[in-house]
Amino acid sequence: MKTSSRITYSIGDLAKEFDITTRSIRFYEDQGLIHPTRKGQTRIYNQRDKVRLKLILRGKRLGFSLAETGRLFELYDADKSSVTQLVTIMELISQKRADLTQQLDDIQAVLVELDGLEANCKYTLAKIDK
């Protein structure tokens, strides 16, 4: 869509581009993460909404919650490229890294347990077959 030399998008356009449902986009709107304008019942998204949607989806892939993403948006809106924003981002990254490292350790511990259980099952089966 093009209106008065500004590019806009319909909810369907964005859903198709990002391969998500329109329901997801409406949910992000309900969470206050994107703010389309309205023309009657029709939502009209601008470039800022599109960029935010891309960042929301990237944040989700990296394991950031919607609340964390919203917090970053608030900081950015308040003071673009501020020290506070950058420090907060670094803190979130550090916390996410620590969480993922812990999850990795937990997964490795479970794999060791599964290996032991599997070996025990094989040993027991071998005894039964004899």
Automatic annotation (TrEMBL):
Alphabetical list of InterPro entries matching this protein: DNA-bd_dom_put_sf, MerR-type_HTH_dom, MerR_fam, Tscrpt_reg_MerR_DNA-bd
Keywords recorded for this protein, A-Z: DNA-binding, Transcription, Transcription regulation
Transcription regulation among keywords: yes
Domain HTH merR-type residues, every copy: 8-75
Keyword Transcription attributed: yes
Protein name: MerR family transcriptional regulator
Organism: Thalassotalea profundi
Upper taxonomic lineage: Bacteria, Pseudomonadati, Pseudomonadota, Gammaproteobacteria, Alteromonadales
